[in-house]
Write the structure tokens for this entry.
Amino acid sequence: MNLQEYLEVFRTLKVNSSSGHAKPHKACMLLAVIDLLDSGSLTQNRFVFDDRLKDAFSQRFEQYRQGNDKDTPVYPFFHLSSADFWHLTANVGKEAELQQRLKDSAPGGTGVIKQLVAHASVSPDLFLLLQDASTRSVLAGELEGTLLGPKEAFAQWCRSVGKSDKTISNYLNALGGPISQWASAQQGRSIEIVNTTQAGQIVEIRDALLEYGLYQERNRVGKGMYSAALNLWERYLHEGRATSRIERDISEIEAREIDATVKDTLVRARRGQGLFRNRVLQQWESRCAVTGYADPRFLIASHIKPWQSSDDRERLDRFNGFPFIPSVDKAFDLGFISFDAAGKIMISTELEEPEKLGIREGQSVMLLARHHAYLEYHRASCFSG
């Protein structure tokens, strides 16, 4: 199969939804494999169920778990075998027992899996695709997209701008229920507000509803709750900026002879609207890494190792980015600030009156191991000292 076909397979991955939401386990196991390939820890199409794989799974699982989801990597490692691309190879002499457990859909515990399974692997055509860093990022993005549905993404963003869970619940109930019903009746077609992804479409729906008597009356009785829900959904969808330098970079990408899906992903990432921005904001819970400011409309996903100096994998790597408010982003981009190995801010003597930009001594960012190589580059090649 080709990339487009695997994107569809990942998008429609069969998961357990018995608890009311899609379980993240299978997607997190695949993301763990991709992360290990990214880091160079995996070089062969053989994925042993060891601590390295389990740790990579747990890191991903912690990002996407909901409710009472359990960190049980043994289950996706086993149950992914129901997908045509994931294969389990039995230890010598354990072939029949493994086949019986697969037939019975009975994985057992970690000890059983280690006793029965030598390693997992993916189909050769998929592993070939995974050798390319850009393609890995695209496939990872598809998996990430399955883990955070529109309602969950909206709720996460609402919390980041200070909305309570009760308010979020009320707004989602309104958007998914009466507002969608009124919009459908008013326009004579089926409309699901929470599946609407363009801010302009929400504006059109909202303007049309202003002429719809039932909506007007219910909104008045509800003290503006329905219009507030629509306004917040539009605000949630409305993001993005572009500069002339960014547009020049986009022109360079569009001129390259690469896979169309990869090209589109890189273009959207450069505009700050695609995988890179989403990954960076999610990593930092939609808060400025320095100031803690939590309105995503004002946050810029800033590359640590500059775009021009990065390869395609680095351009989309969540660890090659910080979310900053504009003043901090500009100071970082121009090399007037950086961060030491402990995350403490470094301020150039060339930056005049940094306090007026919200920058001051003593500020810091929380770093993970995979940030360090990028920051070393920034300190050596971008920071003006």
About this structure: Residues 151-237 form one domain. The chain has three domains: 3-147, 151-237, 281-381. Confidence is low (pLDDT under 50) at residues 239-244. The first strand starts at residue 86 and ends at 90.
